[in-house]
Design a protein that fits this description.
Layout (H helix, E strand, L loop, with lengths): L2 H14 L3 E6 L5 E4 L1 H7 L3 H6 L3 H6 L2 H18 L5 E9 L2 E16 L2 E11 L4 H19 L1 H4 L4 H11 L4 H8 L3 H15 L4 H10 L4
Antiparallel strand pairs: 1-2, 1-5, 3-4, 4-5
């Protein structure tokens, strides 16, 4: 069965679902199908949506997200196979602003067992879940921060990462020294070094690094 035949077979069932269902080509993330509720939000017909091709991702998603998302998706498919389902938060742009969605995605069609060609995504809006939206926003900010400061963070030694983690948890130098079984002077030396490498001057900025790199 071709991907077009699959879409024709299941499209009526997709339309009964409350969320938005989208079929995309993996290469270029080009859209092939979207349920009517999603098309109305974007203000497009299905033909107009398909005509956007690779521009689809640039028109309706944040650039940083799409780059990371596509790279991560390809990696997960390669490592875990085409039967897995992946869930994530993302923002969709329509009516002049971005809107948060929770989505699940998996492979919809493959030309061969190890050659997936299309994905299916099911997305639901998060407007009614304010706490979840705020958490998703923080995660996005932390992801952007981690990407921008990747080289700085990976210049740290193993001990400096340990000190960063403990500092992020609010430990004082004497507590760090006791936990790591080193002197306070050594702790102070590591703190000075990591602050220089990360180009920070206070504990709040160190906490931002600790959060972004999952050290808490």
């Amino acid at each position: 069965m071709t991907v077009e035949e699959k879409i024709s077979t299941y499209s009526k069932e997709f339309e009964k679902l409350p969320g938005v269902t989208v079929i995309n080509e993996i290469e270029g993330f080009k859209p092939l199908f979207m349920t009517t509720n999603g098309l109305k939000l974007l203000g497009l017909t299905l033909r107009e949506l398909i005509a956007t091709k690779e521009n689809y991702q640039h028109l309706f998603f944040k650039p940083n997200f799409m780059g990371d998302y596509l790279e991560t998706l390809e990696s997960m498919i390669e490592q875990e196979g085409i039967e897995e389902t992946y869930t994530f938060f993302h923002q969709v742009k329509y009516r002049g602003s971005y809107h948060w969605y929770a989505a699940s995605i998996k492979v919809f069609h493959a030309e061969a067992p190890l050659k997936p060609t299309h994905t299916i995504t099911y997305a639901v809006p998060l407007e009614d879940f304010e706490w979840t939206m705020k958490r998703a926003e923080r995660l996005m900010e932390e992801t952007d921060f981690a990407r921008q400061n990747f080289e700085k963070f990976h210049s740290l030694s193993r001990r400096e990462v340990e000190i960063l983690s403990l500092s992020g948890r609010g430990m004082r130098m004497n507590e760090m020294a006791e936990k790591l079984n080193i002197s306070i002077d050594t702790v102070n030396s590591h703190l000075k070094s990591l602050r220089k490498k990360l180009e920070v001057s206070n504990s709040i900025e160190l906490l931002e690094y600790a959060r972004a790199y999952d050290l808490l």
